[in-house]
Amino acid sequence: MSTLLLVDDEPAFLRLAAAWLEKQGHRVVTAADGAQARDLFQRERPDLVLLDLVMPPERTPEAGLALVPAFAAVPVVVLTAHAEHELALRAVAEGAWDFLAKPVEPELLRFVVARALAKRGLEMELAALRAARPQDDGMVGVSPAILRLKEMIRRIGPAEVPVMVLGPSGSGKELVARALHAASPRGAGPFVPVHCGAIPAELLESELFGHLKGSFTGAHQDRQGLLAAADGGTLFLDEVGEMPPAMQVKLLRFLQEGTYTPVGGRQPVAADVRVVSATHRDLEGMVAQGALREDFYYRLKGLILRTPALAERREDVALLAARFLADLPRHRRLRLAPDALAWLAEQEWPGNVRELRAVVTTGAALAEGDVVTAADLAFARSGDPAALAPAPPATLAEAVTALERRMITAALAATGNNHSAAARRLGLSRVGLLKMMTRLGLRRSGP
Ligand SMILES: Nc1ncnc2c1ncn2[C@@H]1O[C@H](COP(=O)(O)OP(=O)(O)OP(=O)(O)O)[C@@H](O)[C@H]1O
């Protein structure tokens, strides 16, 4: 049975329309103003909203129009007076699905509702199919550690329990969180990452919970927080060990009750959010030292997944490197030379997959032709031209040119093609660098 939310300030219309729609087999909840409508929308999660645009207290169509986006996760049918075509079109521009002129003809109402519910049904089916489709979770690897991790994600992704991902920096914790989200029924909903250590403590509450206009200097208008943005999806708390103690208390309340209070607000607001958290720190140690609240830790912990260091899955290094090359937006297809594969296998990767990715990406930018060599990778990693294998230089001039080309390409890759920054790195003026690039054929001449 579908639930319809009917919003109108005329009691007689509410009664009649609700009775008619109930006779068609729907469940109907009614609201007489915007605030009540928002509240019921949160609580009842209707499949369709029928919305009168002119209601108390404002009695302006603007106030009604402002409601449309808030309900747009489901089809919204606006009810307008007969002569208000322009208003109806504005409502559609705001995200409404259809409109009906008042006085509403019962048969037309039945038809429009059936059509909107059919759309809703298709959307839900699509979301279910997306969630059920085997996902390419982007996790590359055939090592036992990765296969185990993938299997765990498949099993616990669909569960609603909180998950904590533990592992060294750059080992793929965020990727695991995304894969958990994709494997859950929330997969079509939002995935919202929060890097707890990157947001100043005094801003974190308003970032997470949102704030109301006027709640502090500079709060010129109401602002939604990240919890609201994650409603119906997954909130990823990265580096959760960095969460300031005062925020731990407030988030704990949300984890327990499912509600939070925006900064400057009085009413608790509900959000349907699954929380996945991650850290490379020893949280139990932090609990023992009093830096992390024990109750917060236990609420968050749920199930624990561990991402292995790259050192524990060396067999994946070559596969990962090949994938990173394939992912590059290039016209030519690059491949790894045999000596590059050998070099990759010998290295230690303290920065884990993130470091490997950076080295492969920079090495690819340095490669001449379509083969990435060990020398390219070694240079990319150390930034030291001495790492370059001594290419048999025919003449000194050729060797110098090759070295210039490599150093310039590396500096450009490292600075995201910023000419001034690359010139500074190389100890050149910007104009000097541009001239050299032209001479080396790294840049077309002319303006
Ligand atoms: N198994 C994997 N397959 C493909 N790419 C991976 C894999 N693991 C990690 N990566 C890539 O490595 C990089 C770092 O991964 P991610 O950001 O998930 O690490 P993290 O553990 O969350 O890091 P940090 O602790 O520093 O936040 C990303 O570019 C990610 O796509």
Spatial order of the strands forming the largest sheet:
2-1-3-4-5
How many separate structural domains?
3
- So what's the overall shape? elongated
**What name does the CATH topology of the largest domain carry?**
Rossmann fold
CATH superfamily (homologous) name of the largest domain: P-loop containing nucleotide triphosphate hydrolases
What fraction, in percent, of the residue positions are helical? 40-55%
N- to C-terminal distance: 67 Å
Bound molecules: adenosine-5'-triphosphate
Question: What is the number of beta strands?
Answer: 14
- Any guess at the CATH architecture of the largest domain? 3-Layer(aba) Sandwich
The overall average pLDDT, rounded, is 88
Radius of gyration: 29 Å
Could you tell me the strand content as a percent range? Answer: 5-15%
InterPro entries: AAA+_ATPase, AAA_lid_NorR, CheY-like_superfamily, Homeodomain-like_sf, HTH_Fis, P-loop_NTPase, Sig_transdc_resp-reg_receiver, Sigma_54_int
Keywords: Activator, ATP-binding, DNA-binding, Nucleotide-binding, Phosphoprotein, Transcription, Transcription regulation, Two-component regulatory system
Protein name: Two-component system NtrC family response regulator
Pfam families: AAA_lid_14 (PF25601), HTH_8 (PF02954), Response_reg (PF00072), Sigma54_activat (PF00158)
